[in-house]
């Protein structure tokens, strides 16, 4: 279960997390090299305790195949078998920066939809939840030097040719 959230939503939270778990791993790796179980602990410390080692290792293998992370083996502090540690590559840093931009734009838009409509879907703009459509990180990708940022249209959305379109993994 995820801390602070009702157990009835575990399946929905699991589905949502599945789509962004690789993006959650990259900043943890950027902090310092880690081995598999440390990711489970770090995610749980951040309230994402639905994640098991069985979910982490396939993602780490894919991130390594895509050259976003590299790995090395080091002796275990407890004297056990050597552990496989993961560290971020330069391509991983670029992917993390790109992913952050996409996530903030995407989550902001989803948040607006969820807060700007009433229980039956009608729009309501009676409070601070209403957001000005012109607000947003329009120039942020270019300011961050994110590769491909010029493929975003003036509204901050990604064009069809943009590398920031969520791809199915």
Describe what you observe in this structure.
- There is one protein chain.
- A 3-stranded antiparallel beta sheet has the order 1-3-2.
- Helix content is 46%, strand content 8%.
- Residues 127-144 and 150-169 have low confidence and may be disordered.
- It has helices spanning 10-31, 36-45, 53-65, 90-116, 140-144, and strands spanning 34-35, 69-74, 83-88.
- The chain is mainly α and 169 residues long.
- It starts with 9 loop residues before the first helix and ends in a 25-residue tail after the last helix.
- The protein has 5 helices and 3 strands, in the order H-E-H-H-E-E-H-H.
- Helix 1 (10-31) runs antiparallel to helix 4 and helix 2 (36-45) packs across helix 3 (53-65).
- It folds into 2 domains: 7-88, Orthogonal Bundle (Arc Repressor Mutant, subunit A), CATH 1.10.10.10; 92-151, no CATH class.
Concise structural overview:
With about 170 residues, the protein is mainly alpha-helical.
Taken from the alpha-carbon principal axes, the silhouette is: globular
- Helices and strands, in order, run as HEHHEEHH
Average pLDDT reading: 76
Radius of gyration: 19 Å
Number of domains: 2
Structural class: mainly alpha
List keywords for this structure.
Tscrpt_reg_PadR_N, 169 residues, Metal_resp_DNA-bind_regulator, Arc Repressor Mutant, subunit A, PadR family transcriptional regulator, regulatory protein PadR, 46% helix, 5 helices, 3 strands, mainly alpha, WH_DNA-bd_sf, 2 domains, globular, single chain
